[in-house]
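Work Package 3 (structural annotation) set out to generate three-dimensional models for the target panel prioritized at the project kickoff. During this period the team completed the workflow that converts sequence records into discrete structure tokens, so that structures can be stored uniformly alongside our sequence database. As a representative example, we reproduce one entry of 180 residues exactly as it appears in the project archive.
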Amino acid sequence: MKKILVHMCCAPCSVYPVRQLEKENFHIMGFFYKNNIHPYSECLKRQESLEIYAQTAGFRVIWQEGYEPETFLRSVVFREDQRCIYCYHDRLKSTALMARRGKFDYFTTTLLYSRFQNHALICDIARSLEKSAGIPFYYQDFREGWKEGIALSKEMNLYRQQYCGCIYSEKKRFFKEQKS
């Protein structure tokens, strides 16, 4: 059985990928990376929901130590329109290095499940990291299970967030320009 480290941004986005990887006989371990998630109360909700799901589904999760959203913010300030590039790279690099350290056979990400993420960019970054980290990136287009994953996460009563996690997407969700 091949070991795979799966970057998990949240429980709902993990449901379908975990089921698919189990069908392919992977031994799954999750990795929750949180520096991009704002505010901290949101981060805790996502972590708690993932803890519940992991326990129910029967896999373990490596939890990033600490919480440093300042690192994320310093890295994207004045480049806010390019923030996703940094965010994908930061999370995937941390996952690849953790996978190498843990002697996993592969690494992947639940970002490949979301229809709202830049799939091609995620793959490009992960492919470059597989070379530099020396650990293969496992690619699967999990978007085909989008509706199934949503239905399952609702059945499980998992906390379902309404934005990717960063302060910029939170603003975009709530703030609407006033027309003068």
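The longest strand covers residues 26-32.
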